[in-house]
């Protein structure tokens, strides 16, 4: 149990140290913009292509269930669209982002750690939390919700196209927003923003504790991706349960 608490609690401690350091030393906004480009620009095609495939799979499953149970795929379309907007869109997009951006952050920071560049930064009056972690956190909070939005749009368009051309069903049946309301959008945003906050923190925890050589960099990269992915799933579950308990 203590291991689980340490696994998920370490990013929280990292966040507290980053906020304290950023309040004291300020935030390097130019580096934050560079990290936003690094996270968003290099992840956008992975997220959009992955979500396009996911949308195709989703509509295939919906079509199979519709033919088996109700015989009319248009009946299930709005329900699947709500599921995509509220649950699957932000969760799967965040996992795809964690697999690339989490690995990149962990690999970069662990390389700096094993090459003693972090110690050199501290000796030159720099702060690794303010100078290295804070820009990545800001990029994650801003970039992941944007990636989740683009990913959800890609999945929706892909689902509509597959329904139209593969199954001969009106693709607009899977873009029917009759069940989507403001609470669905709020839940999706909270999941995306929470994952955007957690992914760089989990990667930074793994990267900054790396010691040794190339083997330590590999282990830190793996640990960063695993921690970021599990954190995204935990955030998805927590937000979903909270909204269910509040009947929203």
UniProtKB/TrEMBL annotation:
Gene Ontology CC annotations of this record: ATP-binding cassette (ABC) transporter complex
TM region(s), chain numbering: 45-62, 137-162, 183-205, 225-246
GO molecular function: phospholipid transporter activity
Signal peptide (residue range): none
Record key words, sorted: Membrane, Transmembrane, Transmembrane helix
Keyword Transmembrane helix set for record: yes
InterPro entries: Permease_MalE
Domain of life: Bacteria
Keyword Transmembrane helix: yes
Protein name (Swiss-Prot/TrEMBL): ABC transporter permease
Native species: Myxococcus xanthus
